[in-house]
């Protein structure tokens, strides 16, 4: 296994900067998800790690080995793409074994042992003799995963492998990926725009925007303690509520607060907003300590009794995620409270500590 070291890497296409001076290390044995919206640079970064693109500047190292100028075949990596290339005239087992035939250091017995191990890991022993054309898209991707991990390379790269898989197969495929990554402990970089995949699979998530990594953290910390407004908005379904706040001396005033929020004197200038997750907003039928009045504008029935309501508080519209519907119908009034320990403060888009 090996760390992946991204040493001040920039990638430009003409005047467009796809990746902007990234300087980060992905630890060996970890699953790192590159997460972000389309066009954020995650695929370009993965392609540079793979050797399919060359950085405009900077270096890429696997451990102590500088691979910046090496072609893919000399990097000792496995890859799983959105559209896996398979051999339709070969069986599942033969497709998994195919890359191993080029490794002269492996005996026939070792190749067979690896194929058997992967078939067990993927729970595909009963399909070992099936041909690729007989499989659904999810099963084909499982074979592609098996073919990559059977080589036992230091690093495996996944490029949005569930994009073209239907929903039920996608869930099964994610469970398979989780089992594979936990069992083999290879260094894995997984590109996705799907936050559920990232939160499920990753040891750490690199959240990307406009060619930069805005936060690199464990999934739960990234969700609970976003370092930027973008992180609070992008993660969550729906994302965080943001409410404009006005600073008066060492206090912040906002429509969601029944009393001011004390802040440090050195908070600095700029635009201040308060952020809170929809599931952390409390909704009541009667006034209580710290509550403010709001009007129900919309309700959506969710899964397993988890519902989403939109509540107008002054000029702000607050998203509230709760078990069960709001205590009143649309256009009725409710009381909302915002636990102070759940409120985050952002200045000019960046998190600040009170």
CATH class of the largest domain: Alpha Beta
Within CATH, the superfamily of the largest domain carries the name P-loop containing nucleotide triphosphate hydrolases
Q: In whole angstroms, how far apart are the ends? A: 41 Å
What is the radius of gyration computed over CA atoms, rounded to a whole number of angstroms? 25 Å
**Mean of the pLDDT scores?**
90
* Classification by helices and strands: alpha+beta
Protein name: ABC transporter ATP-binding protein
Family: Belongs to the ABC transporter superfamily.
InterPro entries: AAA+_ATPase, ABC_transporter-like_ATP-bd, ABC_transpr_FbpC, ABC_transpr_MalK/UgpC-like, Mo/tungstate-bd_C_term_dom, NA-bd_OB-fold, OB_MalK-like, P-loop_NTPase
Keywords: ATP-binding, Cell membrane, Membrane, Nucleotide-binding, Transport
